[in-house]
Specification:
2 copies of one chain form a homodimer.
Chain A lengths: L6 H20 L6 H8 L6 H4 L3 H24 L4 H12 L2 H5 L6 H5 L11 H18 L7 H21 L3 H18 L15
Helix pairs in contact in A: 1-2, 1-4, 4-8, 8-9, 9-10
The first copy, chain A, binds a DNA duplex (30 and 30 nucleotides) through helix 1 and helix 3.
Chain lengths: 204, 204
Amino acid sequence: MRYSSDQKLQTRNRVLKAAAAQIRTHGPQGVGVAALMQEVGLTHGGFYAHFASKDALIAAAVKTMFEDAATQRHRAIEDRSGPAALGAFIDSYLTADHRDRPDRGCPVACLLGQSAQLPALARPAFDTGVRGMVRLMASYLPDATRDPMALASSLVAELAGALALSRAVEDEALSLRLLEQSRLALRARAGLAIPNPESPYHDH
Amino acid sequence: MRYSSDQKLQTRNRVLKAAAAQIRTHGPQGVGVAALMQEVGLTHGGFYAHFASKDALIAAAVKTMFEDAATQRHRAIEDRSGPAALGAFIDSYLTADHRDRPDRGCPVACLLGQSAQLPALARPAFDTGVRGMVRLMASYLPDATRDPMALASSLVAELAGALALSRAVEDEALSLRLLEQSRLALRARAGLAIPNPESPYHDH
DNA sequence: GGCTTCATATGATGATCATCATGTAAGGCG
DNA sequence: CGCCTTACATGATGATCATCATATGAAGCC
C-alpha cells in the first residue's frame, strides 16, 4: 500500500457521496463523470480506477443513498417508538426543508420518476430501499392496525408522491399546500392525533 | 398555401404527439430531436420550422399531454358522477395497464420526478395540470366531505405516487401490491364501498 | 410555363460526453 | 538508495446531440 493506507477507499467514498448528491438533484443523466470528479477535486481520468462504468457508479451511489437515508431516519425518530416515531418521521419528511434539499433527501422520492433512466444495475438497490421503507413504517403503526404492511405501502406511496409533487410544482403556495395536506392526512391515517397546526393553509 | 392547406399544422401535431409519448417514456432528456423526427417520418432538419428549440417543443408537448389526459379522464368516468366517478377514475388509474403504458398515461405521474430536467418553459403547464387534477377529484368527493380540496390534494399525491412507484420498482409482485393497496386505501378514503376484490395480495 | 414560396432534406458545426491509452509522480519496500 | 507499484493526470477518441445554413423540390399563382 502506497499513499496513505486507505487513500483509494477514501477517494472512492468521496466520489460516491458527491454522486449520490448529484443524482438526487439532477438525475442520473444529469451527472457527468468529468464534472463529478472535479467536484471531488480530481480530474476525470482516474474515475475508471474506482468504477467500471458510469452505470456501476450510479448503482453504488444508489446503495449509499439508502444507507444514508436509514441513519437519517434514526435521527428523525430519535428515541421515540411506535406511532410517535411514525409521526416524527412523517413530520420530518413532508417539510419545505426536505423538499428544498433533495441532494441529502429520501432516495425514494428522488428516484420515483427516474425509473426510465436508472440503469438496470441500480434497480435492485431501489427495490430493497422501498421495501425497507414500507417495513419501517409498518413496524411503527399502532398494534391494532389490521394489515400494517398494506397500510404502510399506501402511506409510503403518499409520502414519496407528495414530496416529489411538491418539488415538481413551481408555485410555492401550491407546493406547501401539497406538503401540509398530505402530512395531516398521513398522520390521521396512521392513527395519530391532530398535530400542531404549524401551517394554516386554506384553499382558494 | 402550398402542399395541402394545413400540411404544416398536421406535421406539427404529429411531432407533438410523438414527443408527448417519448417524454413520458424516456423523460425530457431521453428524447432526441433527430430520433423524434425520424419517428414521424421526417428528418431532423425541418424541426426548427416548427419549434424554436427543444425546450419549446417540450413545453408544448407537456401541454398536449394534459389535454389528452383530460379527455381520457372523461372516457374513464363515462357518464358517472359523484363518488362513482371518483371510484371509476381511481380504478382505471391504478392498474398494471396504466403502469405499463406511460406513453399514453397520466402526465403528473410521469413528470413527478423529472422536476430537475423539465425546462422552465414547461413548468406552468405542469402546475395547471396538477391543479386541474386536484380540482377534478375534489368535485367528485361526497358532498359531506369537510374540506374537499384538502382531501383531494392528498389523494392526488397518493395516486401519482403509487403509480410512479409501481413503475420504478423492478419486482412485479411488489409493484402490483403497491398499486392494489393504494387503490383500496384511496377508495376507502374517498368514502367508497369496498370494491371488487380483483386482486387478493397478501404481504409476505 | 415560369416564378415564387414554403415544407422538408442535407450536411456541417460545435458542444458535451463516456471511455480509455498512456504518462507522471508519490512513497513504501528491498 | 533506487525500484516499482499505485493513485491520479493528460490528452485523445468516437459517439451523440442541438442547432442552423443552405439546398431541393413540390405546388399554387401570374
